[in-house]
Amino acid sequence: MAETRPWGFYESVFTVPNVSQVKSIVVFPGKRLSLQTHKHRSEHWVIISGTGRVQVGKDFHVLTKNQHVYIPKETLHRIENIDSVENLHFIETQVGDYLGEDDITRYEDDFGRS
Question: Which CATH number fits domain 3-108: 3.30.1490.20, 2.60.40.10, 2.60.120.10, 3.40.50.10860?
């Protein structure tokens, strides 16, 4: 079942508790996730469709279909849909000893969740 967020929605498609989780994530046009870190997990993002601007640490990348990025745990990161029409769809694979939604430290957020 999809979980809605102010920037879009996601669905967990596969989980091995305390080892890994795979999510399908959609970001609406012009929206972005919070600037955040995770203490317990790393993430791998693979773009399925759309165009995303990704921040990993101090580096910025523009990614499109079939491109990917690795985010080590405790690394500042964010993704933004820079298209004005098309949804950004990516697959997130989380790897870590704890995968809960409360393992997010937000530094900036467009929706007041910091």
Answer: 2.60.120.10
Separation of CA 85 from chain center: 19
- Is there a contact between 62 and 17 (Cβ–Cβ < 8 Å)? no
Q: How many CB atoms lie within 10 A of CB 24?
A: 16
Residue 64, pLDDT score? 98
Q: Is the pLDDT of residue 13 over 90?
A: yes
pLDDT at 101 exceeding the cut of 90: yes
Please give the model's pTM, rounded to 2 decimal places: 0.95
- How far does the chain reach from its first CA to its final CA, in angstroms? 26
Q: Exposed, middle or buried by CB within 10 Å (0-12, 13-18, 19+), for 105?
A: middle
- CA–CA separation, 18 and 15 (whole Å): 9
Predicted local distance difference test score (pLDDT) of residue 114: 73
CA 94/CA 76 separation, integer angstroms: 15
